[in-house]
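Why does residue order matter? Because the sequence determines the fold. Keep that principle in mind as you read this record.
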Amino acid sequence: MNMTLNLRLFLSILPFSFSLISQTVSAAEMNQGNVTDERVINSSSAEPGSWLTYGQNFKEQRFSELTQINTNTITRLGLAWTKQVGDYNMRMQGTPLVVDGVMYVSNGWSVIYALDATTGEEIWKYDPEVDRSYIRLACCGPAHNRGVAVYEGKVFVGTFDGRLIAVDANTGKEVWDVDTWIPEGLGRFNITGAPRAAAGKVYIGQGSGESGHRRGYVTAYDADTGQVAWRFFLVPGDPSQPFEHPEMELAAQTWGGEWWKYGGGGTAWNSLVYDEEFNSLYIGVGNGAPWPREIRSPGGGDDLFLSAIVSVDVETGRMNWYYQTTPGDNWDYSSAMDMTLGEIEFGGEMRKVVLQAPKNGFFYVIDREDGELLRALPYTDGIDWATHVDMETGRPVENPDVVYESEPQWIMPANSGAHNWEPQSWDNELGLMYFYYHDIANFYSLDEGFVETGEYEIRERGLSLGWGEGEYRRRLIEEAGPRPESQAFIGAFDPITGGYKWRHELKSDYNGGVVATRGGLLFHPEGTGEFSARDTNDGQLLWRYKAPGTFRSTSVMTYQVEEDQYVATMMNGNRAIDLGGTVLVFKLDGNLDLPIPDIVQRSVPDLPDDVFSVTQISEGDDIYHAQCASCHGGIGIPNEVAIVAPDLRLMTPSSHQAMADIVLGGSRADRGMPEFRDAVTPDQLQAIRAFIIEQARRLKEFQDQNQEAIESAANEEALKRA
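Structure:
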């Protein structure tokens, strides 16, 4: 299961010197982006006030040594400045970087902003002019981007339409722009993850594994020129063709059927971690596509390297070792979650380790040198797909009673995972990992057409999950019974014992990443729109800020400029509040008030009088959930709603009249709504409209029957927001 190759110890040390800059010099006049390997390696001790990389440093521990904001001063924390950097139709998931008093941040459409870190004043802005039709490839709703890399005078961003771009950190002018797509046999990709830069290279993977034929890979580019240094594929291609590198020949032996016709998945959509001690890059590999292995790889085995951590040499791009967290992934249990490098005492000696809490519910401690599994313990009670991880084989022991191919059913964790990509924070001194997780079930089944015919057709336009949709899926859910109750927690986890020093339940099932500090604080944004600080000793709530937006799937960081420590997070708007994506920055004695916008009207307007057949509505149901639901939400099952994109049940009569122009003609492409002319026919659009109107009628009936309760809840919410 583990494969170990010889490792070469190589540390790239570049000359580095600090320049004394007069306090009278503005951020815009500084030599921006002067980030080197040595500077990042030494940053925790030499400049704890900086935040130089996605995970703060190469180890991606996200633990700050800053202490000005602490358990005694936290009550003085207030809003210092804000900056709106995006519109409502996107998700703000990036981690801001702060280098020499300049904050670099990206929005959902991959636009980069350089801001004065003390005031939010814009220094420059770079817009890569992303083709907004690429939102159709996104697996998970509106456009999103998890941040940038700053390295050797340049800022790097992976764009939503699949490019990697370098811009001058001083001016924001483009230096180079490369397309990461490989046309032969692969569909186009989104990039939503933050690039990593180290050892003279920039590293990037892609997302959109659920759309069309997708085969994952990671590419290393020369940081100066944008030339390809090496490329490592994560899933084998057609075995009748030469393999790109020896690891693919190994991997192909673990697949079945004609997997290459589906792509296979394995996209590296988030976590890439550089290790200067072993000159390695750790790749967090994504899920299989389609999700069910019976469709994707019938008769196969582990389906390498799906849902695995793969270590490759940064000079050669060849594999050192791998460990697969979920062999033969059957549930979308991606291992692309954030990884952290640390040092722990194990068996009486210090071990250099990789730490990860992937979707599948088990927390892994893996030796960085050779890939040896040291610990694999559950971090949640909500696991029913497997009973435990066998430490002799390193494999999870699947529960024989939880087999959705023969019995469609609710399974935990859901495809969203017990823990997703939202960043974690590691205190290496205490050996504790701080993160949020949730116990959520999802309903798993096989695609109706595949069950009936044994054949499955990949959609090139739209999601191809392979687990059934529309009325078929709802009928199975009704037969299976109610969804198990959901809950979410935040805690301080000991990966060696598998216990929590403390944990507390959260009000929202979906929340943001965290950062802990030497000041004894854990900052964490919540999906409810509350930004909170807890005592790292016991988890007690010490401070809370109520924002007008939401912090679902956002991140947080802290930095210091001159005498002041700041805490920054990203706030999303949503479809209930017409509010754009915003950077919120706090400091002691900050006193800025953020206006709270009105809640968008949620009542159903007058509906068209059109009469539709049952067949039309049913057809529209299937097409809607294939083409529309990833952004606009599943509107046929209670509580399945989108976070950001408009609720189509609330369309006005004029929007209904203009629907053909919007969907087929692209009249709102500039607002993030691409045209679907190549994916939806006029008759199919009419069927989609039939389904939407039917669901709107049901919603209106519910609102009419429960008007008093709805008005009471709205009044209560208004009072809270006042």
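The radius of gyration is 25 Å.
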